[in-house]
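Quick one: structure tokens for this chain, please?
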Amino acid sequence: MTPTDLRAAFIADLTAVAPDLDPAAIGDNDHMQDDLGLDSMDFLNLVSALHKRFGLPIPEADYPRLATAALAVAYLDQALAE
């Protein structure tokens, strides 16, 4: 998958968890909790959705690497390449 595909998939899962978010308004550096208002349960649901979509284990220690769309795309790109 290209980074563009990964971002689209990430945004799709994010907006499924938080349907009040406008996909077009989500910036690459918007923080999931601080800027977009996800609570901890929303974030865990996002992690679960990403795990389902990509079949990747996402350990709790890696959660900070999903804090923004840009960080998440880089993380997913690296994890899928391994």
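The chain has one domain: 3-81.
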